[in-house]
């Protein structure tokens, strides 16, 4: 196979000339890993995907991890996590945004960020494509760091930020709550959706990518709570809040974003240590199914804030 690499908007590349049904030798596997590290997001179109092929493909990038939300694991393929909307699972994922009722909208986040040990990446494949909405957004936090001015970079080197896991979007301090209303079945605590609880986690404000060594902005709006001990870096608490507001606004700049509009046969892989992602969600009743495999993260990027 000879791969053709086409840049996407702002982050990632589309890989053409790839066929998931064909054998992938060691040289091609290494090429795919290198492209993943270099570009952060890889998009493949028109693939004849089966659960077995997705699982085998995903293993090229590292051992697979089972998601903590066991209720949605597939019986036949424990490595596969089935994301579904448009069916009876919608209730807890439904909320109102500026008067519009939306299922499955997710703010910018990194998966398993709240554990201090985010998974290295994940592969999503289209099983059933939404007729309306249902885009997945990716944001390049390496580029977002890179374009910051030297003073901000120097300040970030001295700072750590805390993330506070919570089920209620209204408890998150830096997401856009304007016009947001939880739905009648929105979870109020982790056990409402059989989710474990997590203590706070702390990350450097500028994280060094464990493989490429590049700096990645450690600011992601979901669960972002505060700068830890801002006074140690000469900041008042008010200044630290303004800094986080400024940095979150920076990560929302479309110059860092690619929004994937799903088509049948699509497969998307991203580097969860570099790219944040989000989901736009779908209108009520719109069917959408995505199969997900998760590539384990064996690196502790943050630390758990317990008993300090
Ligand atoms: O539904 C999507 O498009 C993405 C969901 C998501 O955040 C994930 O799979 O980690
Ligand atoms: Fe996610």
Automatic annotation (TrEMBL):
Residues 5-294 form the TauD/TfdA-like domain. Gene3D superfamilies: Clavaminate synthase-like. Keywords: Dioxygenase, Iron, Metal-binding, Oxidoreductase. The keyword Lipid metabolism does not apply. GO terms for molecular function: 2-oxoglutarate-dependent dioxygenase activity; metal ion binding. The keyword Ribosomal protein does not apply. Belongs to the TfdA dioxygenase family. PANTHER family: (3R)-3-[(CARBOXYMETHYL)AMINO]FATTY ACID OXYGENASE_DECARBOXYLASE, DIOXYGENASE RV0097-RELATED. This is Taurine dioxygenase.
